[in-house]
Structure of ABC transporter permease:
Amino acid sequence: MDVKLTEFWPRILEATIDTLAMVGFSLLFALILGLPLGIILVVTRPGNLMENKLLFPVLNAIINFFRSIPFIILLVAILPFTRVIVGTSIGTAAATVPLVVFAAPYIARLVESSLLEVSPGVVEATEAMGARPWQIVFRVLVPEALSSLILNITIAVIGLIGASAMAGFVGGGGLGDLAIAYGYQRFETDIMIVTVLLLVLLVQLVQTFGNKFSKIIRRR
C-alpha cells in the first residue's frame, strides 16, 4: 500500500464523514423540495382533490425531464449553477447541489406513488364529512401512506449514497473521491475494496433501519 497505514484510516474516516454529510444535507433539501412536489402531483392530477389541467401536466413534464438525466451528466451540466450557489465546483458542498437536483424529482415520484396507494374510499369518506383538500392530504393521505413513504425514502437514501460515490469523478469528496484518487488512479486496490465495503455497509444499515421503522409505523 502506497499510503502509509497511519494515514489510511484517518483518510477513510474523513471520507466516510464527508459521504454522510453529502447524503444527509442533500436528503434534507431534496425532501423539502420533493415532498411538496409529490403531494402537488397527486392532488392536481385529473379527477383528484384539486384537479388542475394546466399545473399537473407542466409539473409532470418538468419532473420527468430531470429524472431522465443520468446523474453523471447532470453533475457536469449544472457546474455553473453549482458555482453560483456554493461558490465552488469541487468538494462536499459542491456535490450537494447536483445531488439535491437529482434526488428531489425522484423523491417527488416516490411520494406520488405512496400517496396513490391510499384507498380512494378513505379519501371520499373524509371528503364527505366536509374536510378541506389540504386537511385530507395531511390528516388522511400522508398518515395512511406513512409506512410506504418511509420505505420509498429509504430507497431514495440508497440512491443518494450511490450518487455521492459518483460525485468523486469531479472531486466531490467522500468515499467515491477516495476510491478514485487512490484506489483507481494510484492502483491502491485495498483502499478501493475498503471504500466499496463501507458503501455496501451504509446501504445495508439504511435499508435495515428503513424496513424496521416502516414495520413499526404499519403496526400502529
